[in-house]
């Protein structure tokens, strides 16, 4: 036999599916660059001082079939009970039409953040639906396009109120003690480094002997009370304080919205609108406020503008207002959002409509009423008579053990207090659920009555003065698509407007838009993965425990760090958590005076924003003419601030797409002067298998799982930004007061609502790493570097390459200079970005990190044919600049504009629509022309336009 069984088995390796260029294509590309193999190339790109060929101890990689079987076995260890724990997390029903056509649809999950509005109109419309839904339900004037989770949303609201406050020097705020515990913990984490003082007290009883700038209410409270906050809100306003409400979204279909009882800012979580529990995330939080506060709003905001034909067009509005543009003046480091989940929640509201949502809420409320009546029958009483979906019942401490045993028998999770039991109902529950709860509270004894019979005497337990009277979701979008056929067509009508990875490569520098393999994503729909409440007993989450520990081990092996925390649910959260760990280390070693953070001038704006959030002072370090850190300036400033130096934040490889040769010297300089090195891991895709940051100098780094490790971008989120740390920092990794296994006892308090952040998408990265194995991960890295250098080589005769390493090569991305073209032809980066749409491509990153340039990152997943297609488009555009520059300036070209009866342009319609032959075979038609950003900023509309727009 010529071929053995073991040789045949390698034919199903995942690596060959993930990496785009074939072996022959790679040889051709290497030859074009003057190399015979990738080892030669890498030896010229990666500094020898950090390059390693050691194996990472990941294993050999396994097939897609085998990974699903293995993961099924692991996650099968989870126990799926009926969880009534509440605290803002509720089981929900994801309509199949949304699960299949949004949640599991690569058109929705592979899209990038909609910074290019002309190719993002579909998801922008869905996000506008989300904003409208939030504004309507909360009774506020404006809402953002989602935040990370409820705890951080409340923290963002407090920071926003503090920035708006006119009370000079007042740093105290009050929080209702019956807020969710995870919300209180995140507030504690966020407040202390910024010198804010949190007082846990019912704002209604506060005597104002000490000035406050804000008060936070939970509505309804964590234990279920529905309270009237009108008079308290008025009193707070009279004292110049802001009113913040953290509200349950479903309850607002029945309760008076906070905007009608005095709230200035309303936050919460849209999770129960069809987004699975997922052991804590990802879930789309929200923040709504008054229109007058819009310029202080954290996160993203979708607005309505017009295109160059005068037609309505959507865009991200006030883009220059985004917090990370403000750098060290920012009050938030928010960079990403939870767009995929916000789209799911918005579609849930579109599908059910206002009456459907109200019916769900009424049914949940009715089940809770039945439970309250049943409690009386078994000799117990709920603590409150005014509630929506949650009850708290006092029980004798000697009864708790029997109750816990009965709940285990019935496979129901309740919430336990020291002297009480609580439970929250949701849309998946039935009368049988109520019966089970009452039986458990009855010590496991039979009830002796039928729960259904209790319904005859029920009235509402929501007081009339707090019953919602105002209309909501009146827009046609929420009243037109209630059949599956209509919703399916609506979803497809939106997705057909967007360019995603299903259409062509997305060559965004610093964003790593690689393949998100179907096998990696399939488990996210499994109930073993998405049906767990984040605060179930750890014994019920042994599958997750196994996966989390193994993923942490693998990330340590890849990076060389001693320990990893998976809690941060975005890259910016990773920055924040990493700096908190450094700060805590200094506190515990009696060096709290260290508060200077050095940051290169080229750094992403989230870096200085994160530093300020942990109480550090930012000192900017210069970069040299090649984009590298100016080592002389760094050494001078490190020496100048050696007595108070806390950290250096450095991106590696650099923001400019180059491996800086001086990285070890840079790290040693910081350590010599008493500081710690934080490495921004945004560009880790250029290092996996080649260099380990935990070995060559950095003390802490975040790793973007939504970039390097294959979690999809979801149109602007979800993401995960875990941090790896050196051994001396490991004791200070984030923990969580509600789940002791979440981190070390000596760690900083929680940075997110859930113990492991966005846990349900961790199987994606675990599967990617495990399928690729040691050699596959290294091959992915070398191929990403090869692809970037191949593009640079092809484009260099037409566009100058701005930055290169000492061997004349780039790392995983390259920056091309458009400034000469602007000077000679009056064509800029925006013009080229818009013209690329006519070729069916998303634009590279525009004007960052250098104004007037385009940063291109192809990733390892794109084939040579696709790279050539992109290069051909860019080369043709450069030719057009000489021959028909107007075709670039007038782009993109819509079908409607090309069908005009009169054609007055200086170029042909065919030139506009089909600039190269292959464009005809898969033509993308932009739904709008070039969007007018200035008009949108002058005429801000951030919810669905009024009804007369549709008449």
TrEMBL record:
It comes from the Bacteria. GO terms for biological process: glycine decarboxylation via glycine cleavage system. The modification N6-(pyridoxal phosphate)lysine is found at residue 707. Its cofactor is pyridoxal 5'-phosphate. Keywords: Oxidoreductase, Pyridoxal phosphate. Belongs to the GcvP family. This is Glycine dehydrogenase (decarboxylating). It comes from Pseudobdellovibrio exovorus JSS.
